[in-house]
Design brief:
The chain is α/β, with parallel strands linked by helices. It is about 40% helix and about 20% strand. It binds pyridoxal-5'-phosphate.
Length: about 300
């Protein structure tokens, strides 16, 4: 209600320039960004077409809106196309660039092609690619040069960047629209100046972290080489998020505790966060992990197979 600050605008312009977009609008968190964006776009006469594994914040945004909702099978572009073909409404497809629980990557080029053929707009949540994929960590959309094909990207800062907040980046009209209709933006206190300062500092630091990103890629390659020789049920991921299925809440907790005792910091993901039988240990790899740590991890895991 007290208007916008010149500093907030400067940081939003910095974010927009970094992400090669017309505009950026900063929210206090990724959750509030998704809630506000999806609910305000979710009007009667629009159908939201969502990957079945999208994050809870996107689902909650859809729940608050008035659109019809359709789910398509995870990363299945044929199913996406057949769902889109059934619809006459305005369509908005919602995907993530890297899925938080499975670690697999969206086939974004194919998704774009199908959406263009079927006149659907696209929203990409880049929470798990921000800071890691693309030039200077700008995200998967920029890595693939698809900026002008995507209506909105949500760049969330709580994962790789290690701070708070998120920006919705996209066209100027979308920023204007949200400032008028996004309820989580309008009816909540804006981020404090120190949060904008963190975000600005983070954008200045990202280009200096190319070496760290290379280190992370090397650690991921090393992990995958070991994973491919291990007999467990691994989900097919090429990213820094790797998941080992260990069915049963009690069993997955037992294995996670063993890993923790060996000094490996992991969390068991239990149902209902994931479906029954798909309980898992999720490994989030970091640039500072060493090959010795990966060896230790697979040595501990050997005892369970
Ligand atoms: C894909 C995805 N989107 C959005 C969020 C929410 O981000 P934040 O923690 O900044 O609210 C998360 C984090 O849990 C996430 O994994």
């Amino acid at each position: 209600m007290s208007g916008n600050s010149a500093y907030a605008e400067r940081v939003e312009n910095q974010a927009a320039a970094f992400h090669n977009a017309e505009a950026a609008l900063i929210y206090p968190s990724g959750y509030t960004a998704n809630l506000g964006l999806i609910s305000c776009l979710s009007t009667r006469g629009t159908t939201l077409v969502m990957d079945e594994l999208v994050h809870a914040s996107l689902i909650d945004g859809a729940r608050l809106g008035q659109s019809e909702k359709v789910r398509f099978r995870h990363n299945d572009v044929n199913d996406l196309e057949s769902q889109l073909k059934k619809l006459n409404d305005q369509k908005v497809v919602i995907v993530e660039s890297v899925y938080s629980m499975d670690g697999d990557i969206c086939p974004l080029r194919e998704v774009v092609e199908i959406c263009q053929k079927n006149k659907a707009m696209i929203i990409v949540d880049e929470a798990h690619s921000m800071g890691i994929f693309g030039h200077h960590g700008s995200g998967l959309v920029q890595e693939l040069g698809l900026e002008d094909k995507i209506m909105a990207r949500i760049m969330t800062y709580g994962k790789a960047p290690g701070i708070h907040g998120a920006a919705v980046v996209g066209p100027e009209w979308l920023k204007d629209y949200q400032t008028n209709f996004s309820r989580s933006l309008i009816f909540s206190t804006a981020p404090a100046p120190h949060q904008f300062a963190d975000i600005s500092g983070m954008y200045s630091c990202l280009p200096k972290a190319d070496k760290k990103r290379d280190q992370l890629k090397e650690i991921v390659r090393c992990f995958i080489r070991k994973r491919n020789k291990h007999e467990g049920e691994w989900l097919p991921s090429n990213s820094h998020i790797q998941s080992l299925i260990i069915p049963g809440n009690a069993e997955v907790v037992r294995v996670a505790n063993k890993l923790m005792e060996a000094g490996i910091n992991v969390l068991p993901i239990r149902r209902p966060s994931v479906p029954k039988g798909k309980e898992r240990i999720r490994f989030c790899l970091h640039a500072y992990n060493t090959k010795e740590e990966i060896d230790l991890l697979f040595n501990v895991l050997k005892n369970f197979k």
